[in-house]
Amino acid sequence: MLHAALYGNDSDPAVILTYAWDRLLIDPVPGPRGADDFTGLEPITPAVWKVPAQARPIAPAGSTLPRLAAELPHTFALLDPKQGAEGVTRQLEELVTHLAPESIDLLDVGGDVLARGDEPTLKSPLADALTLAACCQTNAPIRLLIAGPGLDGELPLDDLRGLLGPVVHTFTAKDVEPISPVLEWHPSEATGMLAATARGVRGTCEVRDAGLPIPLADEGPAVHAVNLDEALSRNELARAVLATTTLDEAETLCREICGFSEIDYERNKALWLKDQQAAKLDPQAVLAGVEQFEAEARSRGVTHTTFRHLTEALNINGLQRDALRTLLINSRPEQYTAPLWHVPAEVSGPS
């Protein structure tokens, strides 16, 4: 969406350097995937690998990247943090030398890359800190962009307002339309809410396993520029990991500075999910559970939720998210506010 909005649909496709770090419902293995976790990757430079449509994660790992590569015109390259910030810096510099790009944008949805590290709502500082540290060490001009401030549920919008620079674009429904088919299956809650706000959806969306309430506000579709060096000076963890050469080293610093590591959280949750059994959905029981969820959500002022959150709230195995989604959309199509599920203000009649 960003590439088309800023550079035009007629421009050359982008090279998107990104983590293979999916939620556990997609990838049950905690932490990010590296090049050795895939088959079918293609070398771009000695340290950078392309993820083509035919690539496959090695079981039991999972990844959304091959399907994204199949459905979008861009090149997806693997951002592998296993050699710490120094390794990510090397990947960036090799890619810049190889491609000689016209522009480089570091895009963060939500804005948690601007965290200090001590915020009580912070959930995933390590991935952002490593990327920010590497970008600040790369010998090339890189622009930091924040899309959908507050939409990832980590830093509240009110805390971010004073940190954001000028608006470079505000997404609209027209921007979303070309990627709508991807949003039908991709589980990213932040991107889903970004798309919904671009389509004009407003309210409060409940997300993640913890049921965080996220305002779907007028600022949601905006993309802001932020000074990269100022972000580094604010982000204590990013400064601390600048010289790291392993992911373990960076994770240790994350525990020391932030008091936790998101990979530890994934390790603990993976152990719990391991015992969760996948059984065939009982439509009647599921719809009754959704009605109970909606009644409780209404009392909390919730107007929307994600299918990922519904899956977890109903204690349904993550592999059945698509089946749940299909059941609900077929049963109550009027409540589907793509790609979110609408919680009506009043109880509807029998379906």
Report on the structure:
With 351 residues, the chain is an alpha+beta fold. The protein contains 15 helices and 15 strands. The protein has helices at 2-7, 65-71, 84-99, 125-137, 157-160, 173-176, 180-183, 189-198, 228-234, 236-240, 247-258, 262-274, 283-299, 307-313, 321-331; strands at residues 15-18, 38-39, 42-45, 48-50, 56-57, 75-78, 105-109, 143-147, 167-170, 203-207, 212-216, 222-226, 304-305, 336-337, 340-342. The strands form 5 sheets. The protein has a 5-stranded mixed β-sheet with strand order 11-10-13-15-14. A 4-stranded mixed β-sheet has the order 7-8-12-9, sandwiched between helices. Helix 3 packs across helix 4 (125-137), helix 4 (125-137) packs across helix 9 (228-234) and helix 14 packs across helix 15 (321-331).
Strand content: 15-25%
CA-based gyration radius: 20 Å
Structural class: alpha+beta
Please summarize the sheet with the most strands: 5 strands, mixed
Q: For the terminal residues, how far apart are their CA atoms?
A: 36 Å
**Strands ordered across the widest β-sheet:** 11-10-13-15-14
Average of per-residue pLDDT values: 94
Described by the principal axes of the CA atoms, the overall outline is: globular
Quaternary organisation: single chain
